[in-house]
Design a protein that fits this description.
Strand content: over 45%
Structural class: alpha+beta
Shape: elongated
Number of helices: 2
Radius of gyration: 24 Å
Largest sheet: 4 strands, antiparallel
Amino acid sequence: MQKSILSFFGLLLFVLLSLPVHAQNLSVQKVKAADITYVLNNIRSTHKTETANFIVNVYAVANKSGSAKQSGSDEVTDHLYIAISSFDENPQQLLFVIKDVYGPSAIKMTKQSEQVIELSFFYKEKGIKKKFIASVQQDGVVKK
C-alpha cells in the first residue's frame, strides 16, 4: 500500500515537472497620466452592484482642498464616477461623472430588475440635505 502511494506521488511529480512552464517577465512601470494618478489616489469610497447583464461601479473621488468653497474651511467636494460594463467578450464600457457633490452620504445602489439599477445618495446644498436618484442601465444614466 505504502509503495503504491509513493509510486503515485513519484509519477505525479514526474508529470508536473514534464509540463511546459512559461515564465512571465513582469515589470513595474511608472504611470505618467496625471489624471488617472489623481483619481486612483483620491478614491474615498467605492460601491458595486451587478445584474445578469452588466455591472455598475461608483467611485467617490475627493476634489482638491477647499473645493467646497465654504468660507474658513478646507472642505472638499467629490466627483462621483459611474462606470458601467456589460458582461460580453468585448464589453461595452461607459463612464459618467456627477461633478462637485458636496457632502455625499449613504450612497446606495439597488437592483430594480436585470436591466435597471437605482443609484441614490444624499448631498448638501446651501446647508440643506437633499437626495439624488438616478436610473442606471447598460447604456446610460438618467436622473429621476
